[in-house]
Design goal:
This is DUF4097 domain-containing protein. It comes from Desmophyllum pertusum. It contains 2 helices and 24 strands. The protein is mostly beta strands and 356 residues long. A 7-stranded parallel barrel has the order 15-16-18-20-24-19-17. The radius of gyration is 26 Å and the shape is elongated.
C-alpha cells in the first residue's frame, strides 16, 4: 500500500465512492515506524478483483489505475477535522463497481463516514472511538469488531452483516426492500434496527433500550437483555431467551418466546398464535391472557384466578409460579391472540438449546 500522507489529529475519514470501500485499523506496529508520534499516517490503495484478474496484463492494470483517480485531502474546520476521499468514474474501462475496491488502513481511533452507490460494498473492521456512518445502495455492508459513540448504517436494499459485536452508545441499522440484517451481538445504550421485507437475526443484545421493526421480515432474537420492543407487522417473532422487559407486537405473524429472568412482558398478535416457554421456576408472574384458545401444559405451575368466555375469545387471569412471599414483586405476562391460540409450556434449559 502507498501512504496517503500524514495527518495531525484528524479523527476520521470521509469517503464518497462509486466503488466498494474497505476500511480497517492499521497494525499498531506501524506507529513505531513514525518519527513524530503525533503524526498519524493513513494508507490507501486501489484494487481490481475479478474472476479473470490473473489474465490481465500489467499494462492493463497500470492503465486501469490511471483511469480511476482518487483524491485525498485534509479538511479542517471549527466543528470537524477529517480526511476527505473522492473518486472519479471509470472512463476507458467498464468493470463492475463491486469488483473495484478502495482500501484504507487508518488509526484505530478513527471514525468513518462512507457513502457508496449501486452494487458497491462496504467493509469496516477493528475501529474504536469515533462515530461510524455508512450508506450503501444495493451493496452489502460488512462490519467486525467496532466500538464507538454513535453508529448509523443505512442501505437501500443491501444486507447489513456483523460477525462479531457492535458496541456503541447509540446505534441505527436500517435497510430497505429485501435487505437483511444479521448481527452476532449488540451492546450499548440504545439501538434501533429496522427492515422492510428482509429478516432480522441478532443472536444477543445487551442494550438498555432496543427497538426491532420489520414490515414482513422474520425477527429472530437470541439472548436479549434490557428493555426490548419488537414490531413485526406481517411476520413472525422468535425470541430465544428474555432477561428484561419485552414488548412484542405483530399483526398476522406468530410469536414464540422463551422467558427466563424476565420483567414485564407484553405479547400481542391479531391473527397469529403465541407460544410461551417458561424456563425459570423462581420467577413469579401475574398472567393476563386474551385468546380464542388457551393451552397450558400440565407441568406448568399456574393458578387460574378467573376465566371468562366472551363472544369470540377467552379472558383469563392467573399466576405463574405463585409465591407466598412476594418481596420481589410480581412480573406481568400479558398475551393477546384473539383469533389464535396462546400456549404456555415449561421446558428445561437443555431442551431450549435445540441441540441436534
Amino acid at each position: 500500500m502507498e501512504d496517503v500522507g500524514p495527518t495531525e489529529s484528524l479523527p476520521g475519514i470521509l469517503i464518497k465512492s462509486p466503488y466498494s470501500v474497505k476500511v480497517e485499523a492499521m497494525n499498531p506496529m506501524e506507529y513505531m515506524k513514525q518519527e513524530d508520534p503525533d503524526v498519524q499516517v493513513v494508507k490507501g490503495n486501489l484494487y481490481l478483483q475479478t474472476d479473470d484478474e490473473e489474465d490481465l496484463s500489467p499494462e492493463v492494470k497500470a492503465a486501469f489505475k490511471k483511469d480511476i483517480q482518487y483524491n485525498v485531502r485534509s479538511v479542517l474546520s471549527s466543528s470537524r477535522d477529517y480526511l476527505e476521499v473522492t473518486c472519479s468514474e471509470q472512463q476507458d474501462f467498464q468493470f463492475p463497481s463491486k469488483d473495484i475496491s478502495l482500501d484504507f488502513q487508518v488509526p484505530a481511533n478513527y471514525g468513518v463516514d462512507i457513502e457508496v452507490s449501486d452494487d458497491a460494498n462496504v467493509e469496516v473492521r477493528d475501529l474504536e472511538g469515533g462515530p461510524i456512518e455508512i450508506a450503501t445502495d444495493k451493496g452489502t455492508c460488512r462490519m467486525k469488531n467496532l466500538k464507538g459513540s454513535r453508529m448509523d448504517v443505512k442501505t437501500n436494499g443491501g444486507d447489513i452483516e456483523c460477525e462479531s459485536q457492535l458496541l456503541f452508545e447509540f446505534g441505527v441499522l436500517d435497510t430497505k426492500n429485501k435487505g437483511k440484517i444479521s448481527v452476532k451481538k449488540l451492546q450499548g445504550n440504545e439501538f434501533c434496527v429496522e427492515t422492510e421485507c428482509g429478516d432480522i437475526d441478532v443472536r444477543a443484545t445487551y442494550v438498555l433500550r432496543a427497538e426491532f421493526t420489520s414490515k414482513s421480515g422474520l425477527v429472530k432474537l437470541g439472548d436479549i437483555h434490557g428493555l426490548t420492543e419488537v414490531n413485526a407487522k406481517n411476520s413472525d417473532i422468535v425470541i430465544g431467551s428474555t432477561s428484561g422487559q419485552l414488548t412484542a407486537v405483530t399483526k398476522s405473524g406468530n410469536i414464540d418466546v422463551n422467558l427466563s429472568q424476565h420483567d414485564d412482558v407484553t405479547l400481542k398478535t391479531q391473527q397469529g398464535d403465541i407460544n410461551i416457554k417458561s424456563l425459570e421456576e423462581s420467577v413469579y408472574s401475574e398472567l393476563h391472557v386474551k385468546s380464542k384458545r388457551i393451552n397450558i401444559d400440565s407441568n406448568v405451575n399456574v393458578v387460574i384466578d378467573k376465566e371468562d368466555e366472551k363472544e369470540n375469545f377467552i379472558v383469563m387471569t392467573g399466576k405463574v409460579n405463585p409465591r407466598e412471599n412476594k418481596k420481589d414483586g410480581a412480573r406481568t405476562i400479558k398475551a393477546e391472540a384473539k383469533q389464535g391460540t396462546v400456549k404456555i409450556e415449561k421446558k428445561d434449559w437443555f431442551s431450549a438449546l435445540k441441540l441436534s
